[in-house]
Amino acid sequence: MKLVILAVLFVSVVHSTEDHCHQSWTGSGSCGYSNACYKTDYFKSVYHGTIQARPNFQASQEAEKLHKAMDGAGTKDNAVIDVLTSCNNEQRQLVAQAYKQKYGKDLIKVLKSELSGDYEDVVVHLVEPSAEYEAWLMNEAISGLGTEEDVLIEILSFRNKTQLEGVRKAYKNKFGKTLAEDIDSDTSGNFQKLLLKLMKEDRDEPHVVVESFAKSDARFLHQEGEDRLGTDDDFFMSVFTSRSWDQLAAACKAYEEIYGKTMEDALGKEFSGDILYGLKKLVAFSRDRAVYFADKLHEAMSGMGTDDETLQRIIITHCEVDMLEIKEAYRNKYGRTLGNMIRDDCSGNYKRVLLALIN
């Protein structure tokens, strides 16, 4: 009974009896269902950050601590790190505003004058508004030699409408062009279409997984892919960019159960190049996003040198969202803690900032 009530709360269409209801697809353009019956047996994933809004927070007091830490000869790094890693990004913006009001100086400019190297980079990115930092990341991914597909897909996939609107505005203000214009000029074909679809943020809100929907998706994906001459690319992209992550994972599982092959294998027979890369990323996100980002962190710290931009990007953008799950996935897969890996790979105040963010 509790499960049925929860399903009603999370799913908008309800029918009185399962025996008299049926499924129907409303058309490839809408990617929706009607007259559906529901069988639910597991719930949406829940994620937890390591950085949260600090209770009893006083921006003016934190600004004063930063001023004392950077006033005079030398910098009291412990105080700087403690202030900036003990509150979330929204609260850091309040600290920066209070700092400007009390001392007439831009906090980021002061930090840049006091700090250096990777330590400076990570602290400055922490103090930047999230939208401005992510706009910068997107521009770096587009404007360099080649295109960093990972950065584009990761940011566009895990931001809600409000967050994406903030990134778009910050991008236009900072670079004088729209994000869509730069994506349009730097990418092409189906991969470009995929990114622009992700920019619209039409993905369903998290909800109880509906198995009957998942099986229907699997059958339609097979029908529009392996079971016909040519592939309905738009249909695949619509499903992959509109289903909630858990529902997409359920569709991939249903596909394997019905047709005996993984979704990745099926995609490999229908697509190639950047669009195949992008669709596989979305499947990986849906299957276990924590494992995906644990792998990315491990790659950033393995081999010769450290990919500091990737390391900082993932920790800064996920410390308020799902870092607890990423840490657990890292330990389970690699047999050691993420913290120990950072301790071995990084040093000094830079290491201390990263450790504070994941703990």
Count of helices?
20
Q: Compute the number of strand runs.
A: 2
Instruction: Give the overall silhouette.
Output: elongated
Proportion in helices = 55-70%
Order of helices and strands: HEEHHHHHHHHHHHHHHHHHHH
The strands making up the biggest β-sheet line up spatially as: 1-2
Task: Find the structural class using helix and strand composition.
Answer: mainly alpha
Beta-strand percent range: under 5%
Structure write-up:
The chain is mainly α and 359 residues long. It has 20 helices and two strands. It has helices at 2-10, 59-70, 77-85, 89-103, 107-114, 117-127, 130-143, 149-157, 161-175, 179-186, 189-200, 211-223, 233-242, 245-259, 263-270, 273-301, 308-318, 323-334, 338-345, 348-358; strands at residues 24-25, 33-34. It has a two-stranded antiparallel ribbon. α16 crosses α17. The longest helix is centred in the last third of the chain and has 29 residues, at 273-301.
Short description:
The chain has a two-stranded antiparallel sheet.
Descriptive tags:
single chain, 359 residues, mainly alpha, 20 helices
